[in-house]
Design goal:
Number of strands: 7
Shape: elongated
Radius of gyration: 27 Å
Structural class: alpha+beta
Number of domains: 2
Strand order of the largest sheet: 1-7-2-5
Helix content: 40-55%
Largest sheet: 4 strands, antiparallel
CATH architecture of the largest domain: Sandwich
Strand content: 5-15%
Order of helices and strands: HHHHHHEEEEEEEHHHHHHHH
Oligomer: single chain
């Protein structure tokens, strides 16, 4: 009877936390390897510290598989709770369908970095549960995202590779590769136009950051009164922009007043404005979801070429 009681209690204790037991077995195996290969004490201490920190990450990594055992409705509720702290911080994942965000959540991979380790990842990085990351003089903590332009096809437009990203302490990151994201977009074609719009906006922002600034309009004293009257006329009737003089239609303030009413009126803007990345970005924001039909056909050829470099193919619109 005593042997039976001891055996029963031992069996219950050993099955309380399967993940912890698996991690302890892995720890013992790697510890034996360090001793057997006579690894230097300093290096061995760093390895053991890393294994100690990775236990919680391995536990969270298995949660995405456990969620699949729930019903579709419960999966959606779980996804809302989880993604609000991670995916909800990325602009192009906000207000998307539960199924789309759940597919992205399942595609995330987790990785742990030691203090002062350089992070060389050409992927979307999301600070998940612990740690602090420094990149380009900025500090990123739990829930914050960096390298959010990872889906741009043209590497010349991206900031990745030029920034020094370093883990300031033990950092656990969630990573989404470009290949996995492209695969998910093929599964959800309805989400593709929304993501394509962000690709274009990010590319325009890179162009503006390189010095493609919008010069100020300089009106002469004689034309100041006429310009003011033209601006008031456009504010009353946006289509009056077509009747304004050509030099007035080179003024971003005047044209944006018309675009606020009808984004398709960008066709009356001067060629300089339709080729300016900053102005086109504003026009797209004013146009909203209808930007491919109202704005895109009227931009200059070089910006269309930029769109091809960003989106890869017009069929993605």
């Amino acid at each position: 009877m005593w042997a039976y009681i001891i055996g029963a209690v031992t069996a219950v204790i050993t099955t309380l936390d399967i993940k912890k037991i698996e991690h302890q077995q892995l720890y013992d195996q790697i510890n034996s390897m360090l001793v057997d290969m006579s690894i230097e004490r300093t290096t061995a201490a760093r390895v053991r510290s890393f294994l100690f920190q990775s236990e919680q990450m391995e536990r969270r990594d298995a949660y995405s598989e456990l969620v699949e055992f729930l019903s579709p409705e419960l999966q959606g509720l779980m996804c809302d709770e989880i993604s609000s702290r991670t995916l909800g911080r990325v602009a192009y994942f906000v207000h998307r369908t539960n199924r789309f965000r759940f597919a992205v959540y399942k595609a995330l991979t987790r990785r742990l970095y030691v203090p002062q380790e350089l992070i060389h990842e050409d992927r979307l990085l999301i600070i998940a549960n612990q740690g602090v990351v420094g990149s380009d003089g900025r500090i990123y903590t739990r829930g914050m995202a960096l390298n959010t332009d990872f889906f741009l096809y043209s590497d010349e437009l991206r900031e990745a590779g030029t920034l020094i990203t370093r883990a300031l302490n033990y950092v656990e990151l969630e990573l989404l590769s470009r290949r996995d994201f492209s695969r998910i977009l093929k599964q959800f074609p309805a989400e593709r136009p929304f993501v394509t719009a962000f690709r274009f906006l990010y590319a325009l922002r890179r162009r503006v950051a390189r010095g493609d600034s919008l010069p100020r309009f300089e009106a002469t004293a004689a034309a100041a009164t006429d310009f003011g009257a033209c601006l008031e006329m456009v504010r009353r009737d946006a289509h009056a922009l077509a009747a304004c003089p050509a030099d007035f239609r080179d003024n971003a303030v005047l044209v944006e007043a018309a675009l606020a009413r009808d984004a398709s009126l960008v066709r009356y803007a001067s060629p300089r404005l339709r080729g300016d990345a900053r102005f086109v970005k504003r026009a797209i924001l004013l146009a909203g979801a209808g930007w491919p039909e109202s704005v895109l056909p009227h931009v200059t050829d070089d910006l269309r070429g930029l769109l091809v470099a960003v989106c890869g193919d017009y069929s993605q619109l």
